[in-house]
Structures are given as C-alpha cells and as structure tokens.
Amino acid sequence: MKKTNEIKAFRLSRLRWVMILSFLFLISCENIKSTNEQFAGYMFVYFTGNEPGEEAIRVAVSTDGYNYRALNDNEPILNSKNISSSGGVRDPHILRGADGKAFYMVATDLYVPGQGWNNYAMILLKSTNLIDWSGSVVNIPETFPGEFSDVNRVWAPQTIYDEKSEKFMIYFSMKKDDGPDIIYYAFANKDFTGLEGAPKQLYFPPAESNTKACIDGDIIPFHGKYYLFHKAEDGDPGIKLAVSDNLTEGYRLVSDKRVDLETRPVEGSGIFKLNSSDEWILMYDVYTSGRYQFTKSSDLQNFSVVDEEVSMNFHPRHGTVMPVTGNELKRLISYWGRFDDLLAEATSSGLKHLNVVFDGENKIIHLPVKRSVDLSGFDPQFRCFPGISVAPEGRQDFTKGPVAYTFTIEGQGDVVYQVSASEDHNPVLEGYYADPDILYSEKTGKYYIYPTTDGFNNWSGYYFKTFSSDNLVDWTDKGTILDLKKDVNWANRNAWAPCIIEKKIDGEYKYFYYFTAAQKIGVAVADSPTGPFKDSGNALIDYKPEGVTGGQEIDPDVFTDPETGKSYLYWGNGYMAGAELNNDMISINKATLKTFNIDNTYREGTYVIYRNGTYYFMWSEDDTRSPNYKVRYGTSDSPLGKLTIPQDNIVIQRDSLTDIFATGHNSAIQIPGKDEWFLVYHRFTYPKGVEMGRSGGFHREVCIDKLEFDADGKIKEVKPTLNGIEPLKLD
C-alpha cells in the first residue's frame, strides 16, 4: 500500500439539485424564516459498508433528529480517492468550530477490499460552508516513525474543541502489532492539516480488563465533566462509559455494564443533543444486523430505545450527527440535490400516510384517502423542508383526474408533479399489523380482526389488539386485549399470529383466543370478543410432535367442524400439526395429534375453512421477509384427514403490476347465510416495504379481497388490490 501524508486540496464539482422524500416532522413551507439563523435541523454524515464504493462520506438531513433523508440520492458527497491515501473513507465525524465560522470533519483512511482491517492513516477536512472541503491525510507511521512505526490500525477519529488550550483535540484508536486497540489523542495544528505532536494514550481501561481493547471513542462535555463513550471489547463487549474532570486524562469507567441496549454486537457510538431540548440521542451501529439503534437520555447514563420513532431511507454505518441552522439546511438541500427525490410530505389527516406514493422518476404522487374524504375539495396540506415551496395551496378538485403541483427550490427552478387521490380500502387497518385472524360474532353481529401488532424490530411485539367492523371496510380499534408483560406469566415476548373461536357453552358465549408467545402457543378466555381475556396460566403447546425435529411451535389456527361441532387446533412452522380440542377448549386430545404430509411449499400459517362438504387447508409458502411470500391450499374430507393438493393451488401471491408483495398468512370469512367469502391477509407495507429489505418482514399491513370458487369447488387465485372491497350492505 502506498503511504503518504501529502496534503491534498480539492473543491467539489457542482452537483444536481434535490428534493428529498420525508414523511414525518417536517418544517412547514410557510413558517421557516424565523429559523434561518437558529438550529432548525440536523446533518448526518456516514458511510454505508465494506464493498467498493460504500466506503465514502454520505450526508442525510433531518428536522427533528429522528427522521432522516439522504441527500444526493445517497451517493457520496466527496470522492474518496481524492481525499484519502487508500481510496476508502469510513467513520466520518463532523464538528462545528468554536467560532461558528468553520466546520471540521475527520475520518478513517481505509479501503477494506484492498487492505482488510489494517490501515495507517486518518483524514482531516475543513470547510466554511459545509459544501467545499479542503483536507489532508495524516499517516501515523510515516509522521511518527520512532514511536509508532509498528502501528497497523488507525481507526475512527473524532474531534473536540479544548477550551483550555484553545485547540482542536483529535482522538482515535490505534493498534500496534498484536497489541490491543488503544484510544489516543493529539492536538491538531492551527490549519487543521496535521498533528502538533505524537499521540498520547487518552484512556486506560481498568486493570481487570481482560483484553484492554477499546475503539470508537466519542466525548461529550456534560455538567462540567467529560463523558467518553467507547466500545470496550472486554467482559460483555459493547458501548461503555468513562467519565473525567479533564479532557485529556483521568477517565474512569462508570460501570462494566453496557450503556447500549442491544444484546448483539454494536460499535460506532455517536451522541448529540436534541435542539431546544435537554435530551440526548445516543445512536450506534448494530453492524451484524445491518441496522442502527437510537436511544434517548437526559442524564447520559440511563437510556431508552426510541427506534419506533426513527426512520431513514438509507442504511448507514458508523457516522455522526451535527445540528444545523435553517440557512445551513437550505444550503445542504440546494447543493446536493435531485428533483426526483422530493423533500416534502402530504400531512392531511384524511390520508393513509403510510401508503402515499412519491414516484420521482415519473413525477407522480398518489394520495390514498380515508373513507368519507371529499375529493372534490381536498387539501393534501403539503409541507416541505426549508427552501422549498409548493403551489397551488388549499383545496383542489381531484375527482376529474390528477392535479398539477409545482415544487420550487429557492433560486433554482421548478418541477411539476401530477398528484392523484383516491379512496383505497386496502389496507383495512391503519398502521403495521400482520397475521390477521377474522371472526364473525353471533353475539354482537359484528366482524373482528385479531392481528399481530407489527412494526417491532425482529418481530419483538408483546401485546395483541382487536378491531371491529359492521361492513368489513370501516374498522374501529378496540384496544389491547392481551399484554404478555402484564397478563401472561409464562412468556413476555414475540406476540405473534393469534386466532379466536366463538363457542356457545351452557347458553353463554365464550371466546377462546389462541396466541403465540416466545415460540409457544397459549390460550386465553373471555366472555366478549373484545375481552378482557384471561390467560389459562400455562402454554398449551410447548413441545414438538413425535418425529418432528425442526421448526417452531407457532401460528395456531382454531376451527370448529360444522358437521360435528367438534373444534380442532392446528399449528406449526416447518411442519403442520393438528389435534382435536377437548371440551374445555384449553387442552388438546393428544391421542388425536397428527402431522400432515404436505409438499415442500408448506412454511407456516395454517387456516382451515369448510364449504360444500370440503375442508380447505390453506398455508403460507416461503418466508414472511420474502416478496414471494404466498398462500397455497389443499383439500380433505375431514378435519384431520389426508390432504389432496391441486396442481394449481395458489390462493394469493405477489402482483408485480401493482407492486404488492409478500401476500400471505391469511384467514377467511363467510358472510352468514351466504356463499360469499373474503380473504384477509397481510402484505409488505405499500409502497416502500419491498425496498426495506429484511425489515419489510415486520412492517406489514392487513388487507381484504374477495375469495371465489369455480364450479368444481377450486379456489380461484385472488389478485391483491389497492382498492380492496366495497362495504357490505347492512340488512
């Protein structure tokens, strides 16, 4: 590898203008003047990965510190080959100068595809406007050959201003030969192009540390002390906190416990204060999972996870956030921009906000509205980032087709988007929900959906809700009906895939609710379809059937045979099991337990219906994280009989024409007294779910479409739709 400490100067070429898509907490187009010189947002600098082209500085912006949108279409704002000796740039840290006139950025000079994890240099950058940067490379072994000739790692530099010396201190980790990673510091020279002297050790781990290895330091002045967050490799590796009265010495570990709230490996902590608040955000890179975690604190020692409030349209690696003023935010947006990536949102309460479509390539916006919205006089209430305006304003007539809206970037020009609006009935529930089970209650004469509460990272939800309707289109949230942490003593996590049955026992209606918790199946009982439900006290299914070695005990389905009145429970992931329920409905007749021989399309999510003497068994194929998640079916002549699998047995699958993906884990409902059926299923959140990668599998939405049979009793393939069904006509 070529080693150099040559100072390089450069200026960025003019890039295209942009408008960035942002969905939450944006600043109103009409109310931005007062914030121009005040902190009005945040600048996030980061890199994205270890592959060629990913080790480069990228920029995103936010107005609230929680919701970020990438600038420059998530492409680098600086050419790594121009500013580094290796061709790769990682771990950028940005700092506002003490005089408010300059900005400083430091980064790791490392190209993993060519160097592995060994490097020798860091990068120092300076700017007066956040757009034009001049910089230099500091090669440690070449600059300090006496003490540091054997250094083979120079990682994750950061900068802090030392008021005592009135200098910028740069701190970073280094590793010599086979020694541990140690956090060092040195002061930058006046021009911020190099170091004044040889680095000195900044942090000394406790004597009982078994590895002494520490990286990714991040220092924050707080209440007269200096808080050093860092990744310690000893004990339980993670983000640890050391505190000192002095910037350059005396750091003592507060606790050997992790400050971060993850159980998986993390690195690259970055902490920043929220504007106009006494609260701080500590974020870090959960690098083995490809995600970031955000936590919040007011004392910098006790943090709470706020991931559900955070959104990003990019996947960052180790980066930092800096508050910016309104003018700075305008400057960033106006310089690193594209007209095909709108930084705007429609905020009307009449919208289904999760399903708004911004198509920058074709300059189209689609606004799905809720029931009863008057499209002849509808105001989308567009809001924009500072420096962007939109016309027309107020109510417009969307009944005659798309309305032309002009978005203007201050001083640069216009772009016209054709904006359409329609009443789309799918999804039927607002928010993220999945695995829907549907019930018609004879007691109340209403329909109920019992879903998994979705949107929790890695399917980590812990409570269940239900929703009621008179017409299958208008649904009312009836609240939480079972909370694992409060109501269940044998499990408190992974609340998944419930099902319910209404039974009339001794003249009284009872409701038996079967649910997954911690990969086991339980049952709770209530006198009403909306609860309160009382758990039976023990898991009903916490074992595998004989002969089964893999899979999970999840996804129950309960079915009452209209021919006999007997009830059955089905379950399984990787295998499908079934058994007759005892009369108490909270235990099974183990003598009847069997597994079904299904082809290799079976994954999970069994659902059974009865029609015209035939028992239809439906199941989901593939993985819920896959766009190809789909439903198939087979038939039998009894609830525990042998299955016949038709050649063409797709019930529902993805529709690439409408970009509806991952249609699976269904239930079905027959309208009482009629041969009229509907399929209830979940899909990826539309339209962005398929772009979310793995997390699309826990950001799902519940939909309903018509289920039909042909003359021979075969299920016709259901086409998933955005429009959904029309409301049932009430008798």
- Indicate the overall shape: globular
How do the strands of the widest beta sheet line up side by side? Answer: 1-8-7-6-5
Low-confidence stretches: 1-35
As for the CATH topology of the largest domain, it is Tachylectin-2, Chain A
Count of structural domains: 3
Strand residue content: 35-45%
Largest sheet, in brief, is:
5 strands, antiparallel
Head-to-tail CA distance between termini: 80 Å
How many E strands? 48
CATH class of the largest domain: Mainly Beta
Word description of this protein:
The protein is mainly β and 731 residues long. The chain has 3 domains: 7-27 and 38-335, Tachylectin-2, Chain A (5 Propeller); 345-423, Sandwich (Immunoglobulin-like); 433-707, Glycosyl hydrolase domain, family 43 (Tachylectin-2, Chain A, 5 Propeller), CATH 2.115.10.20. It contains 6 helices and 48 strands. The protein is globular, with a radius of gyration of 29 Å. Mean pLDDT is 93; it is low at 1-35.
What labels describe this entry?
disordered N terminus; 4% helix; Tachylectin-2, Chain A; hydrolase; mainly beta; xylan degradation; 731 residues; five-stranded mixed beta sheet; 48 strands; single chain; 3 domains; Immunoglobulin-like; five-stranded antiparallel beta sheet; carbohydrate metabolism
